Amino acid sequence: MMRRQGLVPIHAWAAARRSAATAAAAAPGRAGGSRRPPPPPPRILNVPTGPGGVLPDLAAAHPASPIVNVDLSPFYLAEAQAQFAASAAARSSSRAGGRVSFVRAAAEALPLPDASMDVVLSVFLLHELPPDVRARVFAEWARVLVPGGLLVVVDSVQAAEVAAGGLPFDPAGFAKAFHEPFYDTYQSTDFDALAAGCGLAPYDTRQAFLSKVMSWTKPAV
């Protein structure tokens, strides 16, 4: 359920994108009354893919979107492919095999062209990374996003949410029990500042029980 909360800002962003295109097409002064075609389905990067937990829901929510799934682990990629192949999203689309692809790569060195993705979705990655790699990952995400594109991150709540919400959660205990060596630096990172350093602007932040969803846009040129 917490993973799926990452689909909420993507839906809002895509709906706003369609509305803007419709408004532009209906604006007075369009030459010859010509109609502008609706925007194509957003190209989505899902990184890391992990064992595929969010992929079936992502593909079902965006049945025409090309989705590129990136993970460093070949074993996770194989499991994600199997999970997706067995999902209703794959069964309902005869073109699923062509629009959903799997690539082995590190998040900080994406084998993708500049401005090639409309949406980047990342679920439970940032708390696993050392601070210098987090910064490189954000820079890569910003690089592959088109102007106007959206970055969505789902990860753990941070110390501020734990303190403010009285959550039944002990960050230090979690880090020790689950051998998370970079979790303490994740807790204190200002991700809005990190995103701003890569040219990204805040879009939305919301809490989802013990996780939170942070999103940013790449300003249009």
Automatic annotation (TrEMBL):
GO MF terms, alphabetically ordered: methyltransferase activity
Residue spans crossing the bilayer: none
Family annotation (SUPFAM superfamilies): S-adenosyl-L-methionine-dependent methyltransferases
Stretches for region Disordered: 24-49
Annotated Pfam families: Methyltransf_25
Domain Methyltransferase: 44-149
Domain of life assignment: Eukaryota
Name used for this protein in its record: Methyltransferase domain-containing protein
Organism: Porphyra umbilicalis
